[in-house]
Design brief:
Helix content is 41%, strand content 17%. With 229 residues, the chain is of the alpha/beta class. Strands 7-6-5-4-3-2-1-8 form an eight-stranded parallel β-sheet. Strand 2, helix 3 and strand 3 form a beta-alpha-beta unit. Helix 4 crosses helix 5.
């Protein structure tokens, strides 16, 4: 019952955070990050009503998808190499969350056009300017905005970020607030509504909800500690 208990606790915490800041109940979607965890664990989450799952690696996602019921929805949340874009679009992944550069966005647009589909993506923003992190800097995204919004066969749904590690959940608040402000700025420029903000993970998702997240990516708080070996 561990996974079901954790899911219920997280759902309650999300609802409480929504209420604290006056957001409508159900305005935040919980994405269960199932990377490294076996299908048997994912099935326990499924049995408790969870349908949205996220994987970092395309290969792992493609291995798990056919083993799970067809009504599961999958997001790719890790960096996407340009040589794997076609495979990602053909896989049936519903949303590519971490398009980190204008070059990758252009590659996704081109290949989606060749496949006759529209690719749903989020743009990853390196809000803290960490050299080790993927993503547009805010200034790079501003400078590329007209180019990005003109790309065909692309549905840019919003922004995502992975803030620098902090000792407390509260320490991530400035990064979340910065991403929300950037999304508001880009919405004002048009022409996209950018309804999604993917931010917040196991240790800070409640703060992310308070700062406007529409998707929180929670893994270890649901499934337990990961064994990368």
């Amino acid at each position: 019952m561990y996974i079901q208990d954790q899911l219920n606790e997280i759902r309650a915490a999300i609802a409480a955070a929504e209420k604290r800041v006056g957001r409508p109940a159900g305005s935040v979607t919980l994405l269960a990050v199932s990377k490294t965890f076996p299908v048997s664990d994912i099935m326990q989450a499924y049995a408790d009503g969870q349908r949205l799952f996220g994987e970092n690696r395309l290969q792992e996602c493609m291995e798990k998808m056919p083993q799970m019921p067809a009504d599961c929805v999958w997001h790719l949340i890790g960096p996407l190499q340009r040589n794997k874009v076609r495979k990602a679009l053909e896989s049936g992944v519903a949303l590519i969350q971490a398009v980190e550069s204008a070059k990758t966005a252009a590659a996704v647009s081109r290949i989606a056009g060749e496949l006759g589909c529209t690719a749903r993506i989020l743009l990853e923003v390196n809000v803290d300017g960490e050299e080790s992190k993927h993503g547009f800097t805010p200034d790079e995204l501003r400078a590329s905005w007209s180019e990005l919004t003109a790309l065909p066969a692309l549905d840019i749904r919003g922004l995502m970020c992975i803030p620098a590690p902090t000792e407390t959940p509260e320490g991530a608040r400035p990064a979340f607030a910065a991403l929300r402000a950037l999304a508001e700025e880009l919405r004002a420029r048009g022409p996209l509504p950018l309804p999604e903000l993917s931010m917040g993970m196991s240790h800070d998702y409640a703060v992310a909800v308070e700062e406007g997240a529409t998707i929180v990516r929670v893994g270890s708080a649901i499934f337990g500690r990961r064994d990368y070996h």
